[in-house]
Every structure is written in structure tokens, then in C-alpha cells.
Amino acid sequence: MRSAAAAADALQTPVQYLKGVGPRRAGDLAAVGVQTVEDLLLTLPRRYEDRAILQSIRDLRPGEATTIGGTVLSCGLRTTRRPGFRIFEMLVQDATGRVRVAFLNQAFLKGVFAARQQVLLHGRVDRRPTGGLQITNPDHEIVSDEEDDAWGEPIHTGRIVPVYEKIGSLTPKSLRRVVHDALQRLPAEVDDPLPDGVRRSLGAPPRRQALADAHFPPTGTSIEALDRFGTPAQQRLIFEEFFFFQVGLLLRRRESDTRVKPRRLVVDDRIRQAARDLLPFRLTRHQRQALREIVEDLQRPRPMNRLLQGDVGSGKTIVALLAALVAMENGLQVAFMAPTEMLAEQHYASISRVLSRSRFAAALLTGTLPARTRREAGSRIANGASQLVVGTHALVQGDVRFRALGLAIIDEQHRFGVVQRAILRDKGLDPDVLVMTATPIPRTLALTAYGDLDVSEIRERLPGRQPVKTVIRSEARRTETYDLVRTELRAGKQAFVVYPLVEESEKLDLRAATEMAAELQARVFPDARVGLVHGRMATAERERTMAAFAAARIDVLVATTVIEVGIDVPNATVMVIEQAERFGLAQLHQLRGRVGRGAARSCCVLMHAARLSDAAEARLRALAGTTDGFEIAERDLELRGPGDFFGTRQSGVPLFRVGDLLRDHRLMEEARRAAAAWIDGPEAIGPRLDAVRSAWTRRFGLAGVA
Predict the structure, then answer these.
(1) Same domain membership, residue 498 and residue 436
(2) Domain end: 396, 425, 458, which one?
(3) Does one domain contain both 190 and 112?
(4) Structure pTM?
(5) What is the secondary structure of 542-553 as a DSSP string?
(6) pLDDT per position as a tens digit, 14-25
């Protein structure tokens, strides 16, 4: 028996050295994160086919996929009228009859097949133009020659066969060969990273068996169970991945809990009165609860790690600002980080207005500030003259120095990479961290992306606001939509017209938005004042346009998605979203949130092309069906899947290789419970704990919020 070290070496062998891979294919595999044999074996098939039952040739029916076994009677190449196009044909016989087999333009098979071979074939049965049946381009396996009576183990036919996603130049069939070769190279036993007690309680098969059975299941395994990843082998591998992820989160959380802030914040009657003086209205019940949870965290000795999530327009920013006031009243500075310059500018304007009633000053720091303005802002931040700093990623740049950073507030946090968040934290002495999102996180993802954060929620709508009516209309009803806008304009209200702006066609999209603004002004709403705003405008021009719209000096604002977050114009009561099928569900909900911010009834019109894909129609109907952002988040996860929910790997959500957050959410919860129990048990010490830490780091790296 090979040693455990040898088994580990086999799993960590670069895939380049597997039979049939080589440097080029290794590059294709590396592009999807597969670099070692272990990575490859943890890339499971997307589905399975039962090719174990051999059909008699006499029972073949056209149009069906079938598996047969038989003897090659004859084979050879046949030319066709098409230059260079040849067909390799075989005549195969079993005890019940004969059938033609055709391989189109695969002349190399002349050197593969020969008469008297025993073969297994799986493919589609077709009618031949000249009469009779044939199997075209089947998967094939030579299982013996005439003098060899022992049939070897088949890979592509005669069994339950794994079907993989194509990876670069590796077809599903070639991947099947490579995976089979990798499994053959493994020793009879491999080191099991799951702690013994956890594996026993789970009743899981050994890892070596689980890897083999997940790729090449034993005959008789349920295809239905395989395709839903419900077999013991698959479940064990999914649980293993989730277990390590949860252990890593819990370890990081506990390490965070051991840190002590250099200054413990206090809240006394003076600070409470300052908060009342700052606030021009009463908070909702959910706002008060969220603020209570945040302030309790601020007063604890360990740094706060809290997520504040709330629906569009639920009043998260004022809660965060009151938390900032507590920090500033304790002599500390606050960094408020926004994902875009436009949102940072809007936050700065609104925060400055509120802080004008206090003794504190805000500063703005973005990448496009003139050099002199930036230097002056940096000086005020460094000497403490600016107590609250609003900015973009410019806040994390090396030349920015804080005198006493005590609280970092990160808005729309899913748009920032974990490295940026870590750098911002490092600019203070273990500052408290509050991350906010107006894209509510489904509970399943909250266990992963934010598994090491405490969570506060604001689910209530602010008083006086009504739900936005959402309607779906095709291009054919454009006149009706414009009539709706005219009605609102005549009533003294304002409107948004939003165009998509996506990276692949940014220039075309921007031209379309610009041309539409001109068209609306000249021909559709000649008596209205039409403005245009987009992300490529100069900051000053964009600010002037937005200020004019907010002051009702512009009636119709044509915009790209720069208005997705942070725009607050209560007099805007109608939004028309052009080409709505091109937007994601969460983005549509964010855009819709720009109307309905006053007491008047508001409407959002989702305009779409004449023909819609099923997926696009499902998104639009989901949005029209509810205004609850938490419900929309769950639906968005179902429609898009966890890999796309946040957009990129840098968002903090790991790309699990085996598990699926939506499909396997119960296993994630089970893994979290098992991880918590294991960490508190006798096994979580010494080498075993080090091994688990190593496995977590190797798989997930910086995933999560440190």
C-alpha cells in the first residue's frame, strides 16, 4: 500500500502529466481553475447517461439513442461527391441482426477498427437514404479482439456514463478518458480530509470511493439521483467542500473576536441628544432595531463586523450616518466608501446637508478630483479636520492617511473586492466595519458570502411611500407608454427613461441613449425639458444635470444605469426601462426604486423587444409580481444561480467546484452545524486543525470578509 504522502502527491499532481492532456490542454483546464488531479476529480459531470443496457439490433428504432454490442464484420472508407469528405463505415452484428455504422469525415478510424473486433457503440439511430437503419457518429469502445475473450472495463458505453461540460479543446469524451486515467493512478486509499468523527456521523463513503463513484457510478445507480446530485458519493463530496468553507469562516470569525479595539466607544446622554438634533424625523421600527444592534456592537471591545441589508428606499443611509455620529462623538473618523463616483458624490451632498446641523465636517475623495483639491482633502483627513470621508476606491490608495479611523462604512458592498475591504480596514487600528447593501442577500448566500458577519435587516417601507406599479409592454405599445408619461408631466411630475449600458456594446448603447434623448425632445415631448446623464460625462456636467432634475428644471431624464442607486427625486413618478430584457432582475429592482420615493402613486414600465427568451420573460414577470426586494433576491438566485448573483469572483462569493448553493442549501446548513461542533470538540487541535486550515486556504483563499 502506498503511503499517505504518496496519495497526497497523486492528488496534487499537475493535470499536465495525465495521459492525453499535455501543455495545451492543461492551459484549457487551468483557465477554469483545474490545475491538479484533485481539482479535476472535484469537477463532477453535469449529467449521466445509462448505457449499461444493450439493445438488440433487431429492436432498433429510428430517432432513438441506443447502446449496442456486437462484432465488426467489415469496415472501410467510402468517398463522397464532396471533395475531401469521406465516410468510415462498419457493419456490426449481434445474435439478432446486423446494422450499418457511419462515422462522418473521420478517416483516422481506418487505423482503429478491424474485422472480428468486439465493440460497444452508443449513438442515434437514423434511416439510411438507400433504405435500412444506421447508427451515426456513435461513441465507441473496442472491448476485445476475437482471440481475447475477456472484456475490459468500458468507459464510454456499456455502463452508466458521465457527461462533462466541454472545456476548451477537451470534449466530454476526452474528459471521460482523462478522468478515468486519473482515477486509475490513485492508490487504493487516499487520505481523507474530513475529520473522522464528522465522517462517521455523516455515514459517508471513504473519499477514494466517493471520487470513483461520483464519476463512474456502479451499475444500478439511479440516474435520477445522479442528475440531482443526490447519491451518497456526490453528497459526501459536496458536504466536504461546504464543511471546509464553513470551518474557515468560523475560524476567521473567532480570530476576529479575539482582537480588541484600541478605544471602546461609549454612548451617553450627550451623544443621544446629538443624534436627536441630527435627525429631522422619527425612525421606523426596523431602523430603530438595526441602529440598536449596530450601536451595541460599537460599544463592545471587539471590532464590529456587521451587514446592514434593506430594500430600496428603506432608509439604510440615515442609520449608517447615526452610527457614524457615535464614532465621531468618540473622537474617531469615519470612512464611507461607495462603488461609483456618482454615488459617492450624491452621498457626500446628502451627508453634508445632514452634518450641517452638527459640529462635524465631511470630505469627498474620488479618483477624478484635481490634484490640488485631492492634496487639500488628504491633508484635512490626515490631521483630523475632516471627521467623515466619503469616497470611492480612492480611499484605499496608499497616499490616503487617517488620523484616527474608527468606523468603515461600505455601501453596495458586493461591488468591492475583498482585498479593497481589507486595505480600508488596515488604514485604522481594527476599526468597526459596517457593510450595506440594497440588494438583499438570499439566506442561502448569507451563509456563505457573509457567514462571518452579523446581519441586520430593514424590511419596512418608509412612511408615506406607496408600492410602485410595474407593467410589461412590448415595443408595439410604445405610443401607449408615451401617453402615460405625458399624463404625469401634465400633472407636474417627472420621468426617467433608462437605457442599458453593457460593456460589450458600450459605444452603441451610449449612442442609442444620446439619440433617444434628442428624439424625445424633438418629436415626442417637444413641450418638455429633456436631459441626458451617463457615466462618461464630466463630473461637473453630470452634477449640474442631476441637480437640475432634482430641482424640477428637467422634466424627462434619459439615463444609463448610472442612476441605479442613490438618486432621490420624490417628484419622479414614472420610469420607462428600455430593452428591459437586457437587465438582471436585481438591477431592474434597483432602477425601479428610483421612483415611488414620494407620496404620489408611481409606475415602472418594462419595455421589451417583440420576441423574448423564456429566461427574460421569467425575469420581467418576477419583477412585476412583487415589490419585495427580499423575495426578488430569492427569485433572482433561482433564475441566475449563485455563480452570477454577485457578478464576479472578487465579490467575495466563492465559486464552489462541487456544491451548488441553491440545490444543496440543506447540506450547507448541515455543514455549518457540523463545523461549529467540530471546532468546539477535541479534534480541532494541533496537526488536524492545521490540516483543515491548509485545505480551506487552498480551496477558498480570500473568500469572505476578513
Answers:
(1) no
(2) 458
(3) no
(4) 0.64
(5) HHHHHHHHHTTS
(6) 999 898 898 889
